[in-house]
Design goal:
single chain; mainly beta; Methylamine Dehydrogenase, Chain H; four-stranded antiparallel β-sheet; globular
Length: 215
């Protein structure tokens, strides 16, 4: 699955490594459809639409008209809870995170975060969601049960934030580590979730952003 901002669409590439791969396009009709989340059963996709200030739900099976709702300013980060019951979105322009009903798209809760939360990731255990607050060089930890920030983890500092330019965050499967891509310093910070300490910084390629952990 991939977003195509210029076409206001998402693409589903079926069997990408096979000789008979198929490509399907689903229009969002929104500006800046940037990040996306996919349901575990692969029947639904959600996008954050930076330019339109919306979050959009797309039915990948019936191809019904997309459902969009306005959420904050410049919504960008998006993450579905492990049980599929809550869609979390971070809006970098309004320094907020939102909990949405993934089907009705109703906003259940609004949470104030650190500055410029351009990514959000739910812990695999489902108990917290974390935003990557670029301008603070920190992570806001949100209790998913109460929808409140319960702690802040310093990855760098507001003074170092632009030199580091943290963007993407990735949880380890056991929920013990958070990996933070720092695109300006070409590093990935490995953070211990319990202690909040940066254990080490891994040197990576220039402008590293996207991350994944192999099974």
């Amino acid at each position: 699955y991939a977003t195509a901002e210029g076409r206001q669409s998402i693409f589903w590439l079926r069997n990408p490594l096979a000789g008979t791969r198929e490509l399907f396009e689903f229009g969002t009709g929104k500006q800046g459809s940037h990040m996306l989340a996919i349901s575990p059963d692969a029947r639904t996709a959600w996008t954050t639409d930076l330019g339109s200030r919306t979050v959009t739900r797309i039915d990948l099976v019936s191809r019904r008209a997309p459902l969009s709702v306005t959420v904050g300013e410049e919504p960008e980060g998006i993450s579905l809870s492990p049980d599929g019951s809550t869609l979390w979105v971070s809006a970098r322009g309004s320094n907020q995170a939102f909990a949405l009903d993934p089907q009705t798209m109703e906003v259940r809760a609004t949470v104030a975060t650190g500055k410029f939360p351009l990514r959000i990731a739910v812990r695999p255990q489902g108990d917290v969601a974390v935003t990557s607050d670029l301008q603070d060089g920190s992570l806001s930890v949100i209790d998913t049960g109460t929808a409140k920030v319960v702690r802040t983890i310093a990855v760098s500092s507001p003074e170092e934030a632009q030199k580091r330019f943290q963007v993407t965050i990735l949880w380890s499967d056991d929920g013990k580590r958070i990996y933070v891509a720092e695109t300006a310093s070409d590093t990935v910070a490995e953070v211990d979730f319990i202690s909040g300490k940066v254990l080490r910084r891994l040197n990576v390629g220039e402008g590293g952003d996207g991350m994944a952990i192999l099974p």
